[in-house]
């Protein structure tokens, strides 16, 4: 009986958390309106809002559609995710396996960066990006985020969980340090890689503040910035806005569903002492 009550409570809470998403999809499938309607089932459902949302920005600036925002977010998300996983995993491997002076200090400094709010460092980062001439360029959106203290920590802990004997056996077979890292160590930490892919992809896909700082041309807007076009000063196109939101969340949901098994395994990776 206790287990039934526990599961029943969890199901009710899960359904309650899904209500906002259900309302978003319902409003997207309903007729566009400037007033908020609280309903969980659409009346006369259709895809008109999705078509209009995809083409709406072209009414403001000719030739710019939501497809452009989607492309910008896709490029930014892909390169931030791939490059940051590469740099974080290499740094984590060095800090886990190589012994050198100030190794622990460097590790703790990288962890300390997690305690500094992004808004504190955003202005110095903006000034550096502007000095390089990266305003309104993908470089400005991507390069500042190709490394993180959280990623270094996760990968270091994952590498520490791998027995040192495996690495020693690879050395006896004649593999170089780079070969061991690419061909032996990375395949053994697939759950951690999957976890970091989801974390990095979600963060870079949803980031709003930084693109707002380094882009001032609509053709470089990412999806979060593009969605603000549906909200006017006096009127909000709720049908178009919710359709745009639905389009925006589909890639991340799909990514999680594809990698959920590895993601769940990766959450428990690295729980070891050195």
Element pattern in H and E: HHHHHHHHHHHHH
Query: In the CATH hierarchy, what is the class?
Result: Mainly Alpha
CATH topology: MetI-like fold
- Spatial gap, N to C terminus: 43 Å
Largest sheet: none
Helix fraction, binned, reads 55-70%
User: How large is the count of helical segments?
Assistant: 13
Structural domain count? 1
Radius of gyration based on Cα positions: 23 Å
The helix-and-strand class reads mainly alpha
Shape: globular
Q: What is the CATH homology-level superfamily?
A: MetI-like
- Beta-strand portion reads under 5%
Keywords:
single chain, 274 residues, mainly alpha, MetI-like fold, 13 helices, 69% helix, 0% strand, globular
Question: Would you write up a description of this structure?
Answer:
With 274 residues, the protein is mainly alpha-helical. It has one domain (66-232, 242-266): MetI-like fold (Orthogonal Bundle), CATH 1.10.3720.10. The protein is built from 13 helices and no strands. It has helices at residues 2-29, 48-55, 66-97, 103-112, 118-132, 138-142, 149-160, 164-172, 177-188, 190-206, 209-214, 223-227, 238-266. The radius of gyration is 23 Å and the shape is globular. 30% of the residues are buried. The model is unreliable at 270-274 (pLDDT under 50).
How do the helices and strands line up, and which of them pair or pack?
Layout: H1 2-29, H2 48-55, H3 66-97, H4 103-112, H5 118-132, H6 138-142, H7 149-160, H8 164-172, H9 177-188, H10 190-206, H11 209-214, H12 223-227, H13 238-266
